[in-house]
Amino acid sequence: MRLSDFRALSFDCYGTLIDWEAGILAALQPLIARSGITDEDLLEAYGPIEHAVEAEFPDRPYSELLREVHERLSRHFGVEPDAAAAAAFGTSVGDWPAFPDSPAALAYLQQHFQLIILSNVDAANFTGSERRLGVKFDHVFTAQDIGSYKPDLRNFEYLLEHLAKTGIAKGELLHVAQSLFHDHAPANRMGIASAWIDRRAGKTGSGATAIAEPMPRFDFRFTSLGELAEAHQAELEAR
Fold this sequence. Notes:
Largest sheet: 6 strands, parallel
Oligomer: single chain
Shape: globular
Low-confidence stretches: none
Structural class: alpha/beta
Radius of gyration: 17 Å
CATH topology of the largest domain: Rossmann fold
Number of helices: 11
Helix content: 40-55%
CATH superfamily of the largest domain: HAD superfamily/HAD-like
Number of domains: 2
């Protein structure tokens, strides 16, 4: 299997293209200061709490969902929930930074593939992220569109159904993502090839992402999107 075998790349956005851990930590510094916890304490609690809220409220827009996440994190760490801080966290997503390699890698990849977003976000928040990434994606499929949050298989069914209407078959699609839990495990179940962007390579723990058990399979592994772009370019040069 080669990267150049595919016609389209579908991306998780937050954690893969956008540095969501940096964004989360920046947005939650007031909560961290009030509770006296460490950044790692916050990230470790974040993943399971966010997933629980997504499963409980699959029809809520992501900005509203993050308000609930903020309130539950506050209670988890023994501080009184702050409604204004929770609302600010809900609208902070567009301010989260892109990984430094993402814009250039996407600009290169757009010359060779259709680029698709499959993200646990709402349209309003994604608009700011798309500006930071510097490309216009061919398709953007959000949890708000679908009515469920990854790792729900409905999100991947929606992806395949809509791409099929444009002439892209499942075998022509590579799903590119950091989260083994939200993306690679369901991609395995759907029979979609995947590339793991291991943004936490060299770090301990799973950060803000819930743990996937058992370990999912993936077809490629890179520590950045830039590495994926370089590998594709090397394939073309080798021909």
